[in-house]
């Protein structure tokens, strides 16, 4: 689930932090910059693991702060393909089931990947797995708050860096607001489908054993 | 650590923070500042023949480097290691006393809290470095990939179905006995939730008492 990523960056320490030990102020700056942020094509950064190398610090003309090149390792959330994870169902919609891990929310199970047959109950806004056994059909509801296991199938990184002003004249039409569609920078597409759908648990299907 | 103070230089170009020639050439060889600005030796201009700025000397000019990812997959971390790291960090921050300016540290606080909350719900919180080491030694004989061993460590599977999901092509690679022995190793070396274990043992004992009757 978590990987160690080696990175290198130039850290700026403002003069009022010069009294702190350099390692501590650099650690603080790096955490301030990266913690809880998604780095493109890398993953969700959690916290600093260690600093491997500190190069010389320089002060440049016109700026009283010191600039230090730092080589460090960061703990990043980046599950590998086919990894099994356990999460909590946050909600259901037509696009599928939304699952969350607490610290990471953008996990979606598209309808094709749910155990078949599955149908979306419009009234309750919930996906239902109609499980057929000899005794009859059991309806297993994907309720909010339920624990669910899933397998990573795909990941999407979106570059959400700000783009320049659009070429169209947006300033003339003051009334119309550009509703910026907030795209999640990192989404996981997961599946619950697998060939091992026979769960031999004495006929009682425990919900938290859904694979 | 060496902090060098540079003499006044031509107007700062904030797009590219460059190291004036003095550093690459003479290194710290600036005269003490008794000379006036006018007399101060200026970093070389193209005509002076020294290190050249501009297209020809582009190699000398170092841009303030953007953050660079050297290796996006340097190592895999188990949930337990991350749990340990975060609890130590939390302890450190609590001990340090002074409340860090919340604006900057809010992100770190949030992610630490949420990740700790998540990991605390997994069996990783009962593990220790020795347990992990013993587990990996025991796993040596089973010929599993690193990713599979990591998943077993993180999830502590209790049933054969879970093992079949985590291990690829388990039907070809593992026989039934091997899966059984794997389950045995996992449940014996990796500790589960102590209360659940007691509960399970209690129910199992109750069932056994019920059977003879």
TrEMBL record, chain A:
* Pfam families for the chain: RNA_pol_Rbc25, SHS2_Rpb7-N
Listed GO biological process terms: defense response to virus; innate immune response; transcription initiation at RNA polymerase III promoter
GO MF terms here are: DNA binding; DNA-directed RNA polymerase activity
Q: Which CDD domains match?
A: RNAP_III_Rpc25_N
The protein's location, in the record's own words, is:
Nucleus
Which residue stretches belong to region Disordered? 159-178
Q: What Gene Ontology cellular component terms go with this record?
A: RNA polymerase III complex
User: In which broad location class does this protein mainly occur, judging by the first location in its UniProt entry?
Assistant: nucleus
Q: What are the RNA polymerase III subunit Rpc25 domain coordinates in residue numbering?
A: 83-193
Keywords in alphabetical order: Antiviral defense, DNA-directed RNA polymerase, Immunity, Innate immunity, Nucleus, Transcription
Domain RNA polymerase Rpb7-like N-terminal: residue ranges: 9-64
The superkingdom listed in its UniProt entry is Eukaryota
Q: Does the keyword Membrane apply?
A: no
Low complexity bias spans = 160-177
Biological role? DNA-dependent RNA polymerase catalyzes the transcription of DNA into RNA using the four ribonucleoside triphosphates as substrates. Specific peripheric component of RNA polymerase III (Pol III) which synthesizes small non-coding RNAs including 5S rRNA, snRNAs, tRNAs and miRNAs from at least 500 distinct genomic loci. With CRCP/RPC9 forms a mobile stalk that protrudes from Pol III core and functions primarily in transcription initiation. Pol III plays a key role in sensing and limiting infection by intracellular bacteria and DNA viruses.
**Family note:** Belongs to the eukaryotic RPB7/RPC8 RNA polymerase subunit family.
Per UniProt, subunit arrangement is: Component of the RNA polymerase III complex consisting of 17 subunits: a ten-subunit horseshoe-shaped catalytic core composed of POLR3A/RPC1, POLR3B/RPC2, POLR1C/RPAC1, POLR1D/RPAC2, POLR3K/RPC10, POLR2E/RPABC1, POLR2F/RPABC2, POLR2H/RPABC3, POLR2K/RPABC4 and POLR2L/RPABC5; a mobile stalk composed of two subunits POLR3H/RPC8 and CRCP/RPC9, protruding from the core and functioning primarily in transcription initiation; and additional subunits homologous to general transcription factors of the RNA polymerase II machinery, POLR3C/RPC3-POLR3F/RPC6-POLR3G/RPC7 heterotrimer required for transcription initiation and POLR3D/RPC4-POLR3E/RPC5 heterodimer involved in both transcription initiation and termination.
The protein's name in its UniProt record: DNA-directed RNA polymerase subunit
Record organism: Gopherus agassizii
UniProtKB/TrEMBL annotation, chain B:
Keywords for this protein: Cell membrane, DNA-directed RNA polymerase, Membrane, Nucleus, Transcription
Task: Specify whether Cell membrane is a keyword of the entry.
Answer: yes
Among InterPro entries, the record links this protein to:
HRDC-like_sf, RNA_pol_Rpb4/RPC9_core, Rpb4/RPC9, Rpb4/RPC9_sf, RPC9
Name the source's superkingdom.
Eukaryota
Could you tell me the membrane topology recorded for this protein?
Answer: Peripheral membrane protein
Q: Where is the RNA polymerase Rpb4/RPC9 core domain?
A: 67-193
Which GO terms are recorded in the biological process aspect for this UniProt protein? transcription initiation at RNA polymerase III promoter
Entry GO CC: plasma membrane; RNA polymerase III complex
Q: Please tell me where this protein is predominantly located.
A: membrane
Task: Region Disordered: list its residue ranges.
Answer: 25-66, 190-213
| SUPFAM superfamilies to which the protein is assigned, alphabetical | HRDC-like (SSF47819)
Could you tell me where this protein is found in the cell? Cell membrane; Nucleus
Which PANTHER family does UniProt cross-reference here? CALCITONIN GENE-RELATED PEPTIDE-RECEPTOR COMPONENT PROTEIN, DNA-DIRECTED RNA POLYMERASE III SUBUNIT RPC9
Any idea what job this protein has? DNA-dependent RNA polymerase catalyzes the transcription of DNA into RNA using the four ribonucleoside triphosphates as substrates. Specific peripheric component of RNA polymerase III (Pol III) which synthesizes small non-coding RNAs including 5S rRNA, snRNAs, tRNAs and miRNAs from at least 500 distinct genomic loci. With POLR3H/RPC8 forms a mobile stalk that protrudes from Pol III core and functions primarily in transcription initiation. Pol III plays a key role in sensing and limiting infection by intracellular bacteria and DNA viruses.
Its family remark reads: Belongs to the eukaryotic RPC9 RNA polymerase subunit family.
Query: Quaternary structure?
Result: Component of the RNA polymerase III complex consisting of 17 subunits: a ten-subunit horseshoe-shaped catalytic core composed of POLR3A/RPC1, POLR3B/RPC2, POLR1C/RPAC1, POLR1D/RPAC2, POLR3K/RPC10, POLR2E/RPABC1, POLR2F/RPABC2, POLR2H/RPABC3, POLR2K/RPABC4 and POLR2L/RPABC5; a mobile stalk composed of two subunits POLR3H/RPC8 and CRCP/RPC9, protruding from the core and functioning primarily in transcription initiation; and additional subunits homologous to general transcription factors of the RNA polymerase II machinery, POLR3C/RPC3-POLR3F/RPC6-POLR3G/RPC7 heterotrimer required for transcription initiation and POLR3D/RPC4-POLR3E/RPC5 heterodimer involved in both transcription initiation and termination.
Protein known as: DNA-directed RNA polymerase III subunit RPC9
Source organism of the structure: Gopherus agassizii (Agassiz's desert tortoise)
């Amino acid at each position: 689930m978590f990987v160690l990523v080696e990175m290198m960056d130039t850290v700026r320490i403002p003069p009022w932090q010069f009294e702190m030990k350099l390692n501590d102020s650099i650690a603080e700056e790096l955490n301030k910059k990266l913690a809880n942020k998604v780095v493109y094509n890398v993953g969700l950064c959690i916290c600093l693991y260690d600093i491997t190398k500190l190069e010389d610090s320089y002060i440049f003309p016109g700026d009283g702060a010191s600039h230090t090149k730092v080589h460090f390792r960061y703990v990043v959330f980046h599950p590998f393909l086919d990894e099994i994870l356990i999460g909590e169902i946050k909600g259901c919609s037509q696009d599928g089931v939304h699952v969350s891990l607490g610290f990471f929310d953008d996990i979606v199970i598209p309808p094709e990947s749910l155990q078949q047959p599955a149908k979306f109950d419009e009234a309750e806004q919930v996906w239902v797995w109609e499980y057929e056994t000899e005794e009859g059909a059991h309806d297993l509801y994907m309720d909010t708050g339920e624990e669910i296991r899933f397998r990573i199938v795909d990941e999407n990184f979106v570059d959400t860096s700000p783009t320049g002003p659009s070429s169209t004249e947006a300033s003339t039409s003051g009334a119309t607001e550009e509703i910026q569609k907030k795209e999640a920078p990192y989404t996981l597409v997961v599946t619950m489908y697998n060939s091992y759908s026979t769960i031999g648990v004495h006929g009682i299907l425990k919900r938290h054993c859904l694979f | 650590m060496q902090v060098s103070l540079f003499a006044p230089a031509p107007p700062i170009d904030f797009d590219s923070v460059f190291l004036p020639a003095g550093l690459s050439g003479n290194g710290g060889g600036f005269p003490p500042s008794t000379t006036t600005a006018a007399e101060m030796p200026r970093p070389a201009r193209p005509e002076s023949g020294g290190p050249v700025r501009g297209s020809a000397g582009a190699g000398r000019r170092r841009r303030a480097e953007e953050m660079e990812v050297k290796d996006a997959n340097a190592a895999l971390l188990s949930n337990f290691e991350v749990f340990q790291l975060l609890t130590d960090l939390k302890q450190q921050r609590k001990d340090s006393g002074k409340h860090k300016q919340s604006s900057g540290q809010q992100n770190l606080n949030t992610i630490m809290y949420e990740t700790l909350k998540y990991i605390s719900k997994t069996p990783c919180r009962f593990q220790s470095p020795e347990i992990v080491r013993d587990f990996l030694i025991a796993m040596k004989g089973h010929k599993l990939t690193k990713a599979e061993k990591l998943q077993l460590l993180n999830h502590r599977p209790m049933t054969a179905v879970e093992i079949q999901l985590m291990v690829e092509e388990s039907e070809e690679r593992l026989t039934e006995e091997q899966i059984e022995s794997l389950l045995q190793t996992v449940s014996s070396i990796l500790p589960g939730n102590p209360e659940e274990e007691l509960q399970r043992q209690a129910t199992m004992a109750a069932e056994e008492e019920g059977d003879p009757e």
